[in-house]
Design a protein that fits this description.
Number of domains: 2
CATH superfamily of the largest domain: Flagellar motor switch protein FliG, alpha-alpha superhelical domain
Strand order of the largest sheet: 1-2
Helix content: 55-70%
CATH topology of the largest domain: Annexin V, domain 1
Structural class: mainly alpha
Strand content: under 5%
Radius of gyration: 20 Å
Shape: elongated
Number of strands: 2
CATH architecture of the largest domain: Orthogonal Bundle
CATH class of the largest domain: Mainly Alpha
Number of helices: 14
Distance between the termini: 53 Å
């Protein structure tokens, strides 16, 4: 076990883990304690962490997500020691101190936002069975492509300026009629007509490509929100 055979080495904790392939990393830690898995995955970027979670055994996925959501700060000495063992196991080389914000509900929500929709729903479903309160907190922080339908017209127009027509077209392939209408109504008649023609001529598109485009647009929307350029409404939020 990683936590049972630690050897501290100098370096920047987490940097080596970030360079590891998600599948390789998942394979190395798959037999570890879920808390160790949560610690390791929390260091990764949201996309890579999502990929790694999907490669873990199904029996531990929900448990790892819960532990990541509850993980706030960790002694970087522990992280460095765990990383050293992984580095040795992978026969690679790499390499700080103090505490660092790693996991938390927001991180988990961001990770799930970028995962395969089927796996995302499955994980949230399992999490809801064991910890409904935590599952609800995560849902409230998540933002999906279909949530764009709740944006006001000005925000949609700002978003459309930042998204490529190709991504919009692919994303709308798997969108609801109301979502499509929301987009069309915030474009010029000519642009909307061209987009409709492109959709009709596009033909079949892989579901994975549709989801990838939708996630990309949702992430752009979240970035615009963080910059104060648009406002994202999540769930059944009330306003006064």
């Amino acid at each position: 076990m990683l936590l049972g055979n630690l050897d501290t080495k100098k370096g920047v904790p987490g940097e080596f883990l970030k360079r590891c392939d998600a599948r390789v990393l998942a394979n190395v830690i798959r037999e570890e304690h879920p808390q160790t898995m949560a610690l390791v995955l929390s260091v990764l970027g949201t996309k890579k962490a999502g990929d790694a979670i999907s490669c873990l055994p199904e029996r531990v996925q929900a448990d790892v997500v819960v532990r990541m959501a509850n993980l706030e700060k960790v002694d970087l000495k522990i992280l460095s020691e765990v990383e050293s063992v992984i580095r040795e196991q992978l026969e690679s080389t790499m390499g700080g101190a103090e505490g660092k914000q790693l996991g938390g509900v927001e991180v988990v929500a961001s990770i799930l936002n970028q995962m395969d929709r089927t796996l995302e729903s499955e994980l949230l479903g399992r999490l809801e069975e064991t910890n409904p309160e935590l599952a609800e907190k995560i849902r409230q922080l998540m933002f999906t492509f279909e949530d764009l339908a709740n944006l006001d017209d000005r925000s949609i127009q700002v978003l459309l300026k930042e998204v490529s027509s190709e991504d919009i077209g692919i994303a709308l392939k798997g969108a609801s009629d109301s979502m499509k209408e929301k987009i069309y109504s915030n474009m010029s008649e000519r642009a909307a007509a061209m987009l409709k023609e492109d959709l009709e001529a596009m033909g079949p598109v892989r579901l994975s490509d549709v989801e990838k485009a939708q996630v990309k647009i949702a992430m752009i929307a979240k970035k615009l929100e963080s910059e104060g350029k648009i406002f994202l409404s999540r769930g059944n939020e009330e306003f006064i």
